Amino acid sequence: MKNATEKEKKPVSRKKIIIAVVMISIAFFGSFLVYFILQVSFNTESPIVVVVSGSMEPQIHKGDLLFVMGREPENIKNGTIIDKDGDIIVFNAQGLWPSAPIEPIVHRVIDKYQVGDTWYFRTKGDANSIPDAAPIPESRVIGVVVGGIPYIGWVKIFLTESGLLIPLLVIISVLLIVSIVRDIYKGDDDEQDENNKDELENAEEER
User: Fold this and answer.
1) Would you kindly state where each structural domain of the chain is located, as residue ranges?
2) What is the CATH architecture of 45-151?
3) From the candidates 46, 61, 83, 132, which is the catalytic residue?
4) Is 111 a catalytic residue?
5) 55 is a catalytic site residue
6) Cα diameter, the chain
């Protein structure tokens, strides 16, 4: 007969497994859910962008994290090179001119015009000496900058440029899974210890 104080390992219950799966799913997909909510709320596919150049200095710096809101083309504010009063928009210029970057560009509207049913925007970085090489059709506009947090995006820039972003995400994910599974097993052990303690006390009372 086994001693009452000896731990008897029981298989993890189905309830514990379900809880673990749910917690891991929340950890993995929670950020995607938050981003989806932002997409819907801000009416744009990219509600958050990180500035990767200094073309909009001194108002916007490299490493700033910006909040972007979708806006109808006709409601995007026009401006000029001199007054710098136009909206700052985020757009995809890839393929519009030979040196256009892959990353979205954050530049100010210096002119806008309509051809048929399509709006086009002339843009320029405040720190650049000349406007962008081609007009931006409305289909390439991601949204208008409505706010931001200075320099916080440097973390992403550093991790991306150093190639550490993906490995770091993998490490964090593994540690998270290990932590959740360990907590579940620890909960089982604590529960077993409590049961063993109760059994020991009951045995002593019966003597």
Assistant:
1) 45-151
2) Ribbon (2.10)
3) 132
4) no
5) yes
6) 96
